[in-house]
Amino acid sequence: HEELQRKLFDEALEQGCHVPERLVDGLKMAVEDSRMAFGGFPQPPPQTKVRLLFTAPHSLPLRREGHSAHLPEAYTSRLAREFAHIVGGCFLTWSQQEEHRALEYHKKAGEPDPTNQDPNYTHQDALGERPWTRNLKEVR
Predict the structure, then answer these.
(1) Whole-model pTM over 0.90
(2) How far is CA 113 from the centre of its chain?
(3) Which one has a higher pLDDT value, 126 or 46?
């Protein structure tokens, strides 16, 4: 991520354009959040009847730093959304569009998209930066 960001900054500067780092960070966060699917929150009752969150982070190929890649677990995102709907709770999953995009990337590249990291392998220093852990904190 940082290498690509530095390259974009350098190219912009060569063209005489200064891009504030906060703008880039905000755009990165918006793209990451657009890959997620949320439901039930922060909606008040009757949409959210119970404070119960169903998550499914493993519905697409994921990178795990220092470990082999995690392959998708079938139907987990659908189950999380359905369970949340049945009990009146909330869900946090990858969007269906992101699941399809990530699977296509994996088929072509032979490895998961490096921007999709397994949240179970998030280093403590990166908790506020990764989309899963960042959004889980907001749900609290």
Answers:
(1) no
(2) 12
(3) 126
